[in-house]
Design a protein that fits this description.
The protein is of the alpha/beta class and 473 residues long. It has 14 helices and 18 strands. A 5-stranded antiparallel beta sheet has the order 5-15-16-17-18, covered by helices on one side. Helix 3 links the parallel strand 7 and strand 8. Helix 11 packs across helix 12. It is globular and about 70 Å long. The protein binds zinc ion. Zinc ion (ZN) binds next to loops.
Length: 473
């Protein structure tokens, strides 16, 4: 697979409209971008040429938040709010390393096929086989060739602690110090940013983490120069819990603990308070918008227009496949673009398709700490980009970006490169055998049937705190 080629006559976005250019890639990096009319690049016989005529080239999207092992739980969990859905998620989690590997492999494949070249995997670890779990997903991402920020999902407080109203639950077995030691070992073994695989610190969220774990995570990431990633205010219950735990805003609390900086990305942020926004903007933290998951779990509509107005960096995510139930970035972008039109009657505030693409691309790059390497078609940037074939758009005066975002045409992703390496051609991922994606499925009649028991220990308490008006507890 060549990392040296000329991409000819391709359409790229300008500040307004489009331009036809040729792009020279050498050693995985963009070396020249020239308008076709004035092209200086003389093709030599050994220079491979890719014809981009009538096709659109965009930098790769970043899937700013997912949990790869949830690929095993697609279409599995009934409609429930996050806190109860989580109970069923835990009861149906995969237990085998081979499943962890496959989850990452298929997450990477779907990300590439929907225009993504990088993802943040907030990775669930198998208890007792934590290092092997990370090794399995690293193996998958290296095989596929996608960029990945892997943030092992950790906490030091039990499931019930994530609900307001002080539900008595058995204590968590791991202390903050033990969790931090584990993360440090994972960092020493697997953090390899030059190769495209980075480790981040990923405390689940303030709702299940002690201050010791959050400050320890911030210190650890400072020491090794790592990204930070966490869930934040995904549900109304978490907002209520923050009042109970801290007597105020969870964002202010994270800031006090030194957790927020320009390498911090925060998944969901549905229940932010107006006073949180300037703080997020000042610290340079990224809000990762997961509109599909937020609807699936009834979490709410994140105040993305307010975030943008306050100057907060915003990226898109799919969230795990148990609350989506796919990994289609173009779908997340389409929904996340239109959803906010119903939250503000002033259409001048609405997210345009161009703006949405910019968030998915450069907003995402900033969220994973790579704004100086990816997210831009510019000389010196890595050749992480996607070629879209949009034949229907040639029929009329269609705007290509509006067509891509709103129409979300099927099978529009033709080729994908990461670091100049061709990973997708004619819509097929070149680095994975098609049968590799299906070989692990057991037959339906032999499949293990899950016992959803954990929900019973939470549901009546949940109804009491979340639905106090309901007579039916
Ligand atoms: Zn999540």
């Amino acid at each position: 697979l060549s990392r040296f080629f000329l991409l000819k006559n391709v359409l790229i976005l300008q500040d307004e409209g489009y331009q036809e250019v040729s792009i020279l890639v050498n050693d995985g990096v963009i070396q020249a971008i020239q308008p076709v009319a004035a092209s200086q690049v003389e093709p030599t016989p050994d220079l491979p040429i890719v014809d981009g005529q009538h096709k659109l080239l965009l930098p790769g999207f970043v899937n700013g938040h997912t949990h790869s092992s949830q690929m095993w739980q697609r279409g599995l969990i009934e409609p429930l709010p996050l806190e109860l859905w989580l109970a069923n998620l835990i009861d149906s989690s995969p237990q085998e390393l081979e499943q962890i590997y496959w989850g990452a492999l298929s997450t990477a494949v779907e990300t590439l096929k929907s225009g993504g070249t990088c993802l943040t995997d907030h990775l669930t670890l198998l208890p007792g086989r934590e290092l092997e779990s990370v090794a399995a997903v690293v193996r998958a991402y290296r095989q596929v060739g996608i960029r990945a920020l892997i943030a092992p999902l950790v906490q030091d407080q039990p499931l019930g602690a994530g609900l307001p109203g002080r539900l008595p639950t058995p204590p968590q077995t791991q202390t903050a110090a033990e969790v931090l030691q584990l993360i440090e070992t994972i960092v020493q073994e697997f953090h390899d940013p030059a190769s495209g695989i980075s480790i981040g610190v990923g405390p689940t969220g303030f709702h299940r983490c002690s201050d010791a774990l959050l400050t320890g995570s911030a210190e650890l990431s400072q020491r090794y120069g790592l990204c930070r990633h966490t869930h934040l205010l995904e549900t109304r219950m978490q907002h209520k819990l923050a009042q109970e735990k801290y007597g105020g805003s969870a964002v202010q609390h994270l800031h006090k603990l030194g957790f927020l900086n320009n390498q911090t990305s925060l998944a969901h942020c549905v229940w932010l308070e107006p006073a949180d926004l300037p703080l997020l903007a000042e610290t340079g933290a990224t809000v990762v918008h997961n509109p599909v998951s937020n609807l699936r779990l009834g979490s709410g509509i994140a105040p993305i227009l307010d975030c943008l107005a306050a100057g907060v960096n915003v990226a898109f995510g799919c969230d795990g496949a148990a609350s989506n139930d796919g990994q289609d970035l173009l779908e997340a972008i389409k929904l996340g673009t239109m959803l906010h039109n119903i939250t503000d009657p002033d259409y001048r505030h609405w997210i345009t398709p161009r703006r949405a693409i910019q968030l998915a691309v450069s907003g995402g790059a900033q969220g994973v700490g790579l704004a100086d390497q990816i997210g831009k078609l510019a000389v010196g940037y890595s050749a992480d980009f996607v070629l879209y074939n949009l034949p229907q758009s040639l029929l009329a005066q269609t705007d290509l970006i509006q067509f891509l975002v709103y129409a979300k045409p099927a099978q529009t992703v033709e080729r994908v490169w990461v670091k100049g390496q061709l990973l997708v051609e004619a819509g097929n991922v070149l680095t994975v055998e098609p049968e590799q994606v299906t070989q692990l499925f057991p037959k339906r009649d032999q499949a293990h049937r899950f016992q959803f028991d954990t929900i019973r220990s939470l549901e009546s308490h949940y109804r009491k705190v979340a639905l106090p008006e309901s007579e039916d507890l």
